[in-house]
Amino acid sequence: MIQSVPLMIVVVPFALLFGIVALEAGMDIAQVMGFSVLVLAGASQFTAVQLLSDHAPVLIVILSGLAVNLRMAMYSASLVPWLREATGSQKALIAYALIDQSYALSIQHYEKHPRLSLRQRLAYFAGVAVAMCVPWIVASWVGATVGQAIPEGIALDFAMPITFLAMIAPMLRTVAHLAACFVAIVAALALAGLPSGLGLLIAAPLGMATGAIVETWMERKGDGR
User: Fold this and answer.
1) What residue intervals traverse the membrane (predicted)?
2) What is the C-alpha separation between 38 and 15, in angstroms, rounded?
3) Cβ-based neighbours of 48, under 8 Å, separated by 6 or more
4) CA gap 102, 93 in Å, rounded
5) CA 102/CA 50 separation, integer angstroms
6) What average pLDDT values come out for the chain (225 residues) when binned by 10 residues?
């Protein structure tokens, strides 16, 4: 849990900002809390709120949220070798609490300590999840209830880019990772002018496809094929 503190420093203002933005978008406190508790995915929550504010069609809102959260499928796949033997109920809880921060800290810890037992791995994930998810929910509530009292000069919007930079940068360790990141960024910027967040729907799978292609190519090259 102590290892979560650096990320918690940016998660809290990130959640405060969501509470404020969601309230300004017309949601009441119950809706804001339902969003944070049930969805529990900051980036897709911001995406959905922004699109709802822009009066985008519900289908576009749902598809955009799914596109943003496609990375969770990759997270899950990479955790399988470490948590494969967990029970069904344990996997359900892991799936619920699987966010960028809990994944990033857990996978790095597992790779650094490969001899951990399943119980130790689950305990570590649980500690990180509690340290990340509970502050997110509480800070979302604070943002929705007293966020309007926060001076406009305090720029909370710094939290989103810093959070993702802090998590992603240490994990860009292969050519495939860098290629996927580069293509996704370039595509997102090039398609930023498309309406209702459609650029994101295109950029996310383009980045994933690029990473998969480069990784396959590197494996074949390594095998001498």
Assistant:
1) 6-25, 122-143, 149-168, 175-194
2) 14
3) 35, 39, 61, 64, 65
4) 12
5) 25
6) 71 83 83 89 82 81 80 87 94 92 90 94 94 91 78 57 60 79 88 76 84 84 63
